[in-house]
């Protein structure tokens, strides 16, 4: 399909400029030049017309499931609806064409939005101040771990080198702690699925630098002893880090600041409805209490006498983690979402997200899909069930079977403490009728699985079951055309 | 509309189940008396009884109008001219690229955990990896990092881990924000960063004078090409030979568009390439989202790489080709504290934009783009040299699309601000930390700039440097 000389877009060259400067390649010394014919370094990009390119990508898009196609209850990811109006706003010239190094007096409109967003997130979490610069949850975690490290060093406590992380935690938590140079101490959550303050007290010592804690946890359970856990870690001289990936359960209900946390990250691409982009971008702003305010990563957006500005003047800052400002166009969308809902609307979001998770769970055949932890407890924004099929791989089979119903599967095999886990997070944006259908699909699948009638699933997808083992041969990381 | 803490009345477009009848039915099935009861496991002393202190919700028409008017007050193209660079650059985005990335099938999906219904994203990302490898001359490229700076930070960490060494050298002419991010990324490691001097005449690093600093305890060297001043580095082939002899890794940071016309780093011995993919069809967006490039030359290094990789495989029961994520055992969700990085959510949608952009321009369009950029930037540098009180280009080294301009007796900050007040964004002041011994600003000229735009810049600069 590629044909020499064919292009989808070609930029114009001004004849006056062309005449004045002569042959462009003469400006590049020969040794540095990429030859455009012969030689091993010639570009080998495909040559296609605009329509050919569009057909290709439009076809690919038809082989991709998305929130606007059907229910996408991927646990821990909060795949809620992303309002179209936010896309429209983010496509303004004043957003798209704003350069991060342009003088602050020329971007006051956008800076005012970012500043207000920081204040709103502080109110929502009970923190003192936010830095919006971190690009995703994991980068917020890294910032948090660096702040813990620097704060302790500044207070002569550099011997503290352990971070407590519950065994139910997301993989980014231990990975971030390790990136920050800490040893990870695993906190077992036991049968209840909850972290007990007693266990934390036993594990906490003079080596404890802090704890990374997810509330509600990845089982969807509210950590009832969170206040006591915070106290135990603080008593040991450590700091409390709140993984805010599950904040969709708690908006307007309670705040990490009130639970005793010192540092918080939020995943704006989850709770605040910015699109997940097929894997990203996101935004993972990080907020802190007053005693850590000077440690935040820079820049933060501040308001001064002559307007809003990017503030680099933080005495103890852990530095800069992203090249420029932050994922501003994502931050703008999150701000728009908060404005659409307001205080009461956000509280309703959490009410309805929790209602949806508990409702969907109540519809599931409890023998086929038992919960392994926190048996008598209500769930928050998500439910984790274990697939009891008598067969290993039951969770994966069920997930693949669901794909044939025109819906996305739940998260599988996470958290690691639940065998054959399905982690279901319907979110508040799913109409109740679809929750009913999803549950009945899962119940039917469990019967078929048990009776050995499931067969090779999925059947109706653009490709059949993909061989993921074979894929790991590293000779297949690129292709020639 | 709704009462504090008992917000469950009325209707809202984002809340389809906000209806007392539905709520009651759902509660009945659950066996709960009220929604409030679902939250009764939260200790009452930490309940937020007062409600959030945020404004009331507003309809989309109101929010849209407010935000669009606030954003319209920003001075940006098309109403201002932008000649700023430094790691984010003004380039034209073909309409087809915008159309592709605004397809909801791409942008409202997430990480392709279920490959059977995510082949579109997987294939688009696989194509991105492949196209980037061709552009960079590398063997494996991941499917995105947050941005250039964080990719550079991860590369420094990786070089140290792979070699087990504790010294890492940075060229003195790299972008200041990349330098800061690298510093922060390695701060918890036992890794010493050393800065190499550059030549203030050429604006580039003289590697031949530095070969004695490349010893067998050096984990790697980070060089940007073009560097922060826009100047192309020479002598990199010799540097990589010397470095490889001593067992270190060469890490190169690039503007991918320069590779339309400049030799790719894979050809002069780069082991790891990082860079900013923003010029490949991604808006400047006041700093993000952008696209961090991360690629390696040796496939064995791929196992130590951060980030997600997509590979080609087949269906389980047939030869039908299919795509899926690969080498996941490097990643945090499996390896946890032993992972190569903590990255999870990345910048996939931006990688799709970049791959679509490269397909749109293709071999011919990209080459032409490089030529147009070089022509425009060199024309502009020459034109500015005719402005009184200005040295343009300041450095003697060859450049691609950015160049420094020196001023006589005027502060660079004041030139930058005066230009902006005339609707011309450009001349970002070069930090005094670079010790150039004079005031200077950085300009970026690309295919978006016309002859008339450059004329307007020259006139505005003439007025701005007048005392
Ligand atoms: C519980 C939890 N913590 C942390 C993260 C990491 O966030 P991100 O993917 O934005 O880096 C995630 C999401 O993937 C998560 O579910």
Account of the 3D structure:
The complex is a heterodimer of chains A (about 475) and B (about 475). Chain A has about 475 residues and is of the alpha/beta class. Chain A folds into 3 domains: about 15-60, no CATH class; about 85-340, Type I PLP-dependent aspartate aminotransferase-like (Major domain) (Aspartate Aminotransferase, domain 2), CATH 3.40.640; about 345-450, Aspartate Aminotransferase, domain 1, CATH 3.90.1150.10. Helices cover about 35% and strands about 10% of the residues of chain A. In chain A, the strands form 3 sheets. Chain A has a 7-stranded mixed sheet, sandwiched between helices. In chain A, strands 10-12-11 form a 3-stranded antiparallel sheet. A two-stranded antiparallel sheet of chain A has the order 8-9. In chain A, helix 8 runs parallel beside helix 9. The longest helix of chain A is centred in the last third of the chain and has 36 residues, at about 330-365. The model of chain A has no long low-confidence stretch (mean pLDDT about 95). With about 475 residues, chain B is an alpha/beta fold. Chain B has 2 domains: about 80-90 and about 360-465, Aspartate Aminotransferase, domain 1 (Alpha-Beta Complex), CATH 3.90.1150.10; about 95-360, Type I PLP-dependent aspartate aminotransferase-like (Major domain) (Aspartate Aminotransferase, domain 2), CATH 3.40.640.10. Helix content of chain B is about 35%, strand content about 15%. Chain B has 13 helices and 15 strands. Chain B has a 7-stranded mixed sheet, sandwiched between helices. Chain B has a 4-stranded antiparallel sheet with strand order 11-12-15-14. In chain B, helix 6 packs parallel to helix 11 (about 350-385). The relative contact order of chain B is 0.14. The interface between A and B is large, with 207 and 219 residues. Bound molecules: pyridoxal-5'-phosphate. Pyridoxal-5'-phosphate (PLP) binds near residues 137, 138 and 172 of chain A.
